[in-house]
Structure formats: C-alpha cells, structure tokens
C-alpha cells in the first residue's frame, strides 16, 4: 500500500456490536491507511483449534495448535483477507462455533503472546512504509500499541449492539435472534473483561465514543475529527503529474 494521509497508528478498541470493524475499515480507507483486524486473528486460531478437535479449554493443546498454524492477515481495508494454512477462512471464522469458542482460546496467555508479537510486526511494517494503520480489537491501546497517536474506545448499549450483530448475521445468512445475540454479546463481554491476561478495557488515555445513537457516517466523522485534533493527518504523496 502506498503512502497515505494517516501518520502513525489509530487504536480502535471496544466490544462486539459497536460498529468497530466497519468504521475501522472506512477510517483506514478515508486516510489511505492500512487496516488490521486483530479479532480475526484470534478467530482464525480458534478455527484451527476446532479443526484439530482440541478442547478450547485445554491451554497446552491450544498453544500447540496456535504455534503450528500458518496465519496470514491482509491489511488492505478495501479487501481484508484472512488465510489459515493457505486457505481463505474470512467467512468461516464468523460462524457460530468459532464465536462460541473464541473467548476461551483468546484467554490463553501463550496464544495472546504469539499473536500480539505478530500484530506488532504488522503495525511496524505499515508505519515504516509510511501508510499509517488503523488497528481494531479489544487490547490495542492497552497492550498491542500503547503508544498509538490516537486511542478510541467505542461503546454502545447492549440492545443496540445485539440488534446490529443480529442484522449482520442475518445478512450473512446466519440464523439468529436479537435475544440470542444479546446473550452471546453479554457472555463475551464478561469473559473478555475478566480474563487474566490483557482484559478488555479502555486505555487510561482513550477517547470514549458512544455509538448507540450514531450511524456509521456519524462515527466516522467523529473519528476523523479526532485524527485531525491529534495532528495525525498528513498530506498524501502525489504520484505522476
């Protein structure tokens, strides 16, 4: 990816259903930046664990599978890709079996250490290349890139988040109800916030943005304003005449 407007890193954290993934991609696109979905990485490892027939609660076996898995994450916001052992798994990692198991797998300290190291390498490459990068997840501002130029924590009411997730699942052909989705959202919130390693929480210096009453355009507008306030938007390099 070529040089864009973003200078440095935007860390975008928050629970599921806040519009995080959609707005992170759009922000990266608007700024000519790279994009990294760290949650997709944990989901891909979880898929590897399930394919291996390993119990997600068996930390030693989960670590073994994670270490052996070949994980490649694309950082183009227009077409992000997720490959596991050479296979495109971008759709499969969103299925219910992975969703139910990902919190257990992502709580394994060795898995987090492996993936955080990979995430930091991806971030460093993007910054060194001059494209800047928008990174989304649950521990970006606190663990992965604690020195990010802008840290944002997205929030929304549980009901709004459940409705959004249910719409996304329905659009993707996954059968669900708002009630079931809300229960799953709240279950994952509790697991992610109480895990021993890198619990999901806002960084002390993160800007909290409540997306309950905002559409994607509204959230994007707020984020672009924050980027400008932090002086992170440069002038994109011109190519040709």
Automatic annotation (TrEMBL):
Reactions catalysed, as given in the entry: dCMP + ATP = dCDP + ADP; CMP + ATP = CDP + ADP
Pfam families the record matches: Cytidylate_kin
Residues binding ATP, per UniProt: 14-22
Entry's EC annotation: 2.7.4.25
Residue intervals of the Cytidylate kinase domain: 10-228
Membrane spanning stretches: none
Origin: domain of life: Bacteria
Keywords for this protein: ATP-binding, Cytoplasm, Kinase, Nucleotide-binding, Transferase
CC per GO annotation: cytosol
Top-tier EC class: transferase
Locations listed in the record: Cytoplasm
GO-annotated molecular function: ATP binding; dCMP kinase activity
Gene3D superfamilies assigned to the protein according to its UniProt record, in alphabetical order: P-loop containing nucleotide triphosphate hydrolases
InterPro entries in UniProt: Cytidylate_kin (IPR003136), Cytidylate_kinase_dom (IPR011994), P-loop_NTPase (IPR027417)
Signal peptide positions (record): none
BP GO terms, sorted: nucleobase-containing small molecule interconversion; pyrimidine nucleotide metabolic process
Protein family membership: Belongs to the cytidylate kinase family. Type 1 subfamily.
Protein name: Cytidylate kinase
Organism: Goodfellowiella coeruleoviolacea
